[in-house]
Amino acid sequence: MDWLLEPLSYSFIVRGLLASIIVGVVCSVLGTYVVLRGMAFFGDALAHTILPGVVVAFLLGWPLALGALVMGILTAVGIGALSSQGVVKEDTAIGVIFAGTFALGVAMLSATGNYTVDLAHFLFGNLLGVSATDLWVTLGLGIVVLLTILLFYKEFLVISFDPTLAVTLRLPAEFLRYLLLVLIAITIVVALQVVGIALMVAMLVTPAATASLLTRRLAPMMGVAAIIGAASGIVGLYLSFYLNIASGPAVVLVTTLLFVLAFLFAPQRGLWRRG
Whole domain around residue 207: which residue ranges? Predict the structure, then answer.
């Protein structure tokens, strides 16, 4: 039991463990909608577009979450507005904004004089550097995301599975679309410290994709994805501690391994079962 308890004697490990559990649950639950609606590219792009906001907050000495949150919401709304006009397809709007804003963030960061260290921190996270303030911000934003999903569960369910029914029921589809985009932006801010910008899409997509191989109903899918996300965070942090590897990539590698196992051996849909 010593190997299990020893890391918990360090306060920064405990904070990192709590942060990884929160991020694993929040990203995985929202990630079910990302997977069902085929929005993985949007999640990846949005994760990168927050870089200018993070850099500005870093240069001004503000909380990184504040800059990321403002930039993420503005970008989500901007992509939604561009693609909703019908002049530019959504994937084209995402690609243009993704490339431009990420390049802007890298250019701004290169001007700070500590380009390599800072970029590595932003791209791959710093789970073991989570402060008490970071933890409270992560928890607060995570609760906002989960409560919103709970409140709009039926509406999100309808627009995800049957857009035609949503029109028939006169649901505010455009409002719900923008709300989902904003929730993705907030979730990305939640996970920023844990896995960083570059690996963000893995936490949004992989646990939910794994759960989709194990169940076909939305509510159980969310539950299974949350368990996978939280477990990946815990196991990844322990691997990081004992193997002396970066914490963010360790978490992502664990959740990727779980996906591979589900893809091969899932009871109904696994490759082994189909073979």
Answer: 2-262
